[in-house]
Each structure stands twice: as C-alpha cells, then as structure tokens.
Amino acid sequence: MKFGEKLRQARLKAKYTQEQLANVVQVTKRTIINYETGKRYPRDRGMYARLAEALGVDVNYLLTEDEEFITEAASKYGSKGEAEARELLERSAALFAGGELSDEDKLAFLLEIQQLYLESKEIAKKFAPKKRSSD
Asked: Same domain, yes or no, for 89 and 109?
C-alpha cells in the first residue's frame, strides 16, 4: 500500500476530514489531497511524524523505503528531483514484470538503484556550471 492510501485510511479511521487533518498538522487542505492522491509526498520526515502523531499511527506505518527515497530526493533536489525519483522507481518496478527474482533480490536492486541515483546527483553538482552574479 502506498503512502497516500495509508494516509487516507488512517485519516478515515481517526474520523478526520481532509480539512481537519490539514489544520492539525498545519498545512493546506490541498496538501493533504495531494498526499492522498499520490501527487506529492512530504518533503521532510518531520511531516511524516506530525501526520503519524495526529492520526495515532506509528511513523513507520506511513514511511516506506520508496517514500524515504522520494522524500530525500525532494528535499535535496526539489520538485524535479522528486519527479525523477518517482520515475526511477516506476521504471525499475517495470523491470520485474513477469520476472522470477525473490522479494529480497528485488528490494536489494531497488535500494541500490536509489543509492546510485543520489550519488550521481551529488557528482553531477560538482560539474554543474557555477551561477555568476551580475556585475
């Protein structure tokens, strides 16, 4: 189950509307809608903790390896990094369609791909042209 589905399920169980939950965790209703529909993930782990506390669930229930990766990419590289991380996960998952890898091997592969992505972004920053201030 993905983050948005878990969030919605926990919100309904806690008998919150989207607007009520948004007020409790101090975000907009649109933010909660985007989380639940999978259009956005929280940019920092603190939001996962606030949501978990408000909903009375363990933060680990909301946070999976995929969400951690997307959150880290978003916090380091903004919305473009978030989009790239999502696409990387989707394309990587497609590699397993009809395959015969164990769940452990699939997880190991995905974690390695995630790490390579983050390392590549750090290396690329070293070669990016420096922005010059106007004289």
From this structure: yes
Within-domain flag for 134: no
Interaxial angle between packed helices 18-25 and 45-55, expressed in degrees from 0 to 180 and rounded to the nearest 10: 120
Question: Distance between CA 77 and CA 32 in Å, rounded?
Answer: 22
Joined tokens for residue 64 = 């999976």
pTM of the predicted protein model? 0.58
Instruction: Give the model confidence (pLDDT) of 26-53 as tens digits.
Output: 999 999 999 999 888 887 778 989 999 9
Give the residue among 32, 23, 107 at the shortest CA–CA distance from 62: 32
Domain extent for 78: 65-127
The reply to whether 58 and 78 lie within a common domain is no
